Amino acid sequence: MNRLAHETSPYLRQHAENPVDWFPWGEEAFARARAEQKPILLSIGYSTCHWCHVMAHESFEDETTAALMNEGFVSIKVDREERPDVDSVYMTFTQALTGQGGWPMTVFLTPDLEPFYAGTYFPPTDQHGRPAFPRLLINIRNAWKDKREQVLDSAASITKQIREASDRVAVRGGTIAPEVLGSVVEGLRAAYEPVAGGFGSAPKFPTTTVFEFLLWYHATVRDEQEPSGLDMVAHTLTQMAHGGIYDHLGGGFARYSVDGEWLVPHFEKMLYDNAQLARVYLHAYQLTNDALFERIARETLDYLLREMHDASGGFYAAQDADSEGIEGKFFVWTVEEIDEILGSDDGALFRSVFGVTLEGNFTDPHHPDLTGRNVLSQPHTLDEIAAANGVDLLELTARVDDLREQMFVAREARVHPSRDDKVITAWNGLALSAFAEAARILDEPRYLEAARGIAAFLRGTMWDGSSLRHVYGGGVAKIDGQLDDYASVGLGAIDLYRATGDLDLIDWAAELLEAAIERFHDDEDGGFFESPSDGEELILRQKPFFDSPTPSGNGSMALLAAWLGRYLGRPEWEALSTEVVSLVATQLERAPTGFGATMQALVLALTPHLEVAIVGEPAARAPFEREMARHFLPTALLAPAGNGGSLPVLAGRDTAQGAVAYVCEDMVCDLPALDVETFRDQLPA
User: Fold this and answer.
1) 93 with 162: CB under 8 angstroms?
2) Which runs of E-coded beta strand occur in 360-457?
3) Average pLDDT in the 345-353 region?
4) 137 exposure class (CB count in 10 Å sphere: 0-12, 13-18, 19+)
5) Predicted model pTM
6) CATH architecture of 3-167
7) Which sign, positive or negative, has the C-alpha torsion 45, 47, 53, 59?
8) What backbone phi and psi angles, to 5 degrees, belong to 78?
C-alpha cells in the first residue's frame, strides 16, 4: 500500500496498491520535489473514467513503468472531482499546450508547480500517434537532467503567458443588447442536428444548460422561427430517451454517446447529468404535457434514489462504466441471454422493441472476443410497433413494461459497477433543485422528502454558518467550497422554497450569496473567481464562465444574484447579475453552446417577469398550487407562502381577508380573490 490508502477519495484508493510511490496533492509532495530537485508527474482523473482505468492497468500497475516513475519523479495523483480547482488550472495548461484536453490528464511540473509538458492518455507502446509512456518518462527525465535550465525557462514562460491570457478572458464593459437573445438562438439553430437532435457530432454530449435556456427562451419570448427552442429540445430529449444513452431497464443517463445518434454510450452515470436532465425533462413536460418526458424524469430520479442515495441524505457522485474489468458488461445483452430469461416468444418481442440483434451493436476494442452484445435502445416507438402489428397500444405497453421489469430483476443479479461514494456539494445542489422541482410539478411526496433530506445534509454537514465544504466522504467534510458549490446550493434552496414556501430557505440562500460575494467576487474587474480568496493559492486563479457538463460558476452565480435580488428587493444583487453577464457579452454569439447558464441569467435581465403568489390555508391553496405546477414559468417569482412574511411579493399585503390566490405582472398586484379558472386564465399559456 502507498500513501493513497489513507485517502477518502475512491479514485485515489483505487491506486493505493500501485507500485508507484504516489503522493496525494499537498505540501509533503511539493517539499519532496524541492528537496530532491525532481520534476513532478501530476496525474489527474476520476473513479468512473474508463481511460483512467486503462492507463492504470497498462502503466501504473506495471512494475517497470512504476520504477521509472519512482526513480525520476515525485508522482502526485489527484481526483478531479475532489479538487476541481487543481484540475481546472492544469487543464487550462494542457489545452493551451496540446489543443485538447481530457482524462486521464498527465502533466509534468517543476518543483514550483509550473508545467512544462502535458497530455492526456499515454499508451504503453507507441500507437495512434501517441508516444509510449515509458519512452516519454525517459525522455523527460533526461531533459530534466541535461537541459534543466531550458526546461525551467520554458515552464516560467508558459506560466506567464497563460496567466496573461487568463486575465484577458473577461474584462468589464461589455454591452448587453436585447437582440443577443435571438442571435444566440439563431446560432443554436445553425448548430442543431435535426435528425438525432442535439448539437455537434460524435461524441455527443447532452448540453443541458443550453436545453434549459432554449426552454426559457421559448416560454418567455415565444419565438416563431422553426425549429423553435421547444422543438429542438423536445426532439432531442425524445431521441435521447429512445437511445442507448438512456438505461431502459434501470433509468438514468450515461455521460455521453460515442456516436452521433445517442446509441452507444460510455456507460458511467454521473449525478450532475442525471440531476440536470431530470429537471429539463420536467420542464419539457410542463410545456408539452408529453407523458414520455414525465416518465423519463420519474425513472431518472428513482434511479438516483435507488442506487445513489447516501444514508446522510446526500447523493453519491457517480457509477462506473466498468464491471468485472469490462466496460459496459453490466448493461449489454446478447440474444441468448435475453431468451434464456424471457423465453423465445417474449424474448423476440423484447428484442424487437429494444433493437437487439445477433450481430450486436457494441464492440469493445479491449475485448474483441466478446461479440454479439447489444446496448438496449428503442429504434421504433411502441405506437409505431402497435400500429404495424395491429395490436392494442395499452396492452403492448403493459406487456413491455412487464418484460422490462423481468429483465431488470435479472440484471440485478449481475456484478454491479462500482460507485464513487463521494458526496459533492455542488452536484447535490443540482440534485436538490431537481427533486424540489419534481415535488412541486408532480406533487410527489417521495421527491419532497428527498429534497428536504439533501437540504438538511448540506446545511447541517457542509455549511458551518459562514462557509461551505466541497466534498464529504468517510464521515468527513473537507476542502474549501468552490464557487459552483455556493451557487448550486443557493439555487437549490430557492427551488425548495418554491416547492414549500419555507421562507427560511430564502434566508439561507441569501447567506450563501453574501458569503460567495465576500470570498469569490473580483471587486476590481468584476465577476467571480473559481476558488476562494482565503483558500489554497494555486499558480492560476481563474473565473469560470464557460459551461462544462455542469453550469459555470459565474453563470450560476448570476442566476442566484438575480433571483435573490428580486425576491428580497436588493437591486444591487440584480446589478451584480448584470455585471457578470456583461463580462462575456461579446462572446455569447460566438460560442452559443457554451453559455447556457449565463444566457438564462440574460433572459431574466431582459424579459418581463411574473409574480405568482398563493396565500391562505393549505387546503385552499392546494388546487391553485397544482394548477401553477402545470405551467413552466421560468422568470416567475413563485411565492407559495401562506403567512405573508418578509418577501416583497407578500410584504405589507393583507392576506387575512379571504384572498386565496393572486397573479401579479411586472410587480403590480391588487390582490383579488380568484377561483381556479380565473387563476388559470391569468397564467401564461
Assistant:
1) yes
2) 419-420, 423-424
3) 96
4) buried
5) 0.94
6) 3-Layer(aba) Sandwich (3.40)
7) positive
8) -125, 135
